[in-house]
Amino acid sequence: MTEIATRPDQGAINQTGAVINKDAYAQAQDFLPLKGIDYVEFWVGNARQASNYYRALWGYTPTAFSGLETKVRDRASYVMQQNDIRFVFTAPLTPNGEIAEHVAHHGDGVKDIAFSVDDVESAWRETTARGAVSVLEPTEIDGGEDGVLRRSAVRTYGDVIHSFIDRNDYHGAFMPGYRKIKNPAAAAGNLSLLEIDHCVGNVALGEMNKFVDYYRDVFGFSQLIHYDDKVIHTDYSALMSKVMTNGNGRIKFPINEPATGKKKSQIQEYLDWYLSSGCQHVALRTEDIVGTVRQLRENGIEFLGMPHEYYAALPDRVGDVGVPIDTLEELGIEADRDEEGYLLQIFTRPVQDRPTFFFEIIERHGSRGFGVGNFKALFEAIEREQALRGNL
Ligand code: FE2
User: Would you say residue 2 has pLDDT above 60?
Assistant: First the structure.
């Protein structure tokens, strides 16, 4: 096994108390070149209805389908695309098997955060040699005249996996077994979600460092930021978080664990309802958060609300962020600033019945952070909703 130097938290502490490692990108190892996130696959109870929710409310276009009509007998999948964001929604067609069991146990949730690579064999060999558990050995999937798609996969936290996908020699719909959706119904307009900014994992108490080590040792990531429970807490509950990143900075994975407080951490609420570690939220980057959130609200998407006091204090905390404070308050958008710039962000309510997975929308202006200045107000907002659910 290759020896990798340990990298203790040696970054500067900024005024918010978060430890930022400025050399994180340079420290990431290059034994595993990842080009970016190829897709995120959700396993859900009803893929057809999920695809229409994401089309009609969120503006994703259905691009490919797999199921009975493509001779797949055990599952139905819809591929949904918006700019560089690609989601796959897969549901079981039978009561048995891993998809049905996954949905029965977890409810709807993220199954696969897939990486785009040039060499699935090397990616699989390098990660399994460093301790990753294999899910799929390097496989060539024959697409006939569309070419060959190569895939391998390994496990990460909970039941989540990371596939490695090489599309260099494949030119068909999403994957062999899928067909293109011609003339899809119109997607919701006026939305400009551009790419996945980060994907957050919630892991059990005491497991954050295990998975931080896992991303460092197995995937060659390095630690970008550390927030401890002195930073992220309210009067009632707390959590700890470390952010891992790959060498080109395109992949950012914050890992959260609950911390003990007077009441139940929101991370623990997630774990109690997802019944294992899992993906808590995916953040989607936009360059027009005001227009996008305004449209999403019109379409019926629900967001966490922040109190008026939050907005009253905002000008002193963040200065000019290019949007009138009244507009931020009207739409519920939050703002934060660090040494590098500022960001605007907002969080949806959970998007399925269980209080588990949700989305963030983020607009960055120089800041590479995650909105630590909003954590306290945000978590208080979450706790108000936890209390309404009887889970605080
Ligand atoms: Fe986030």
Answer: no
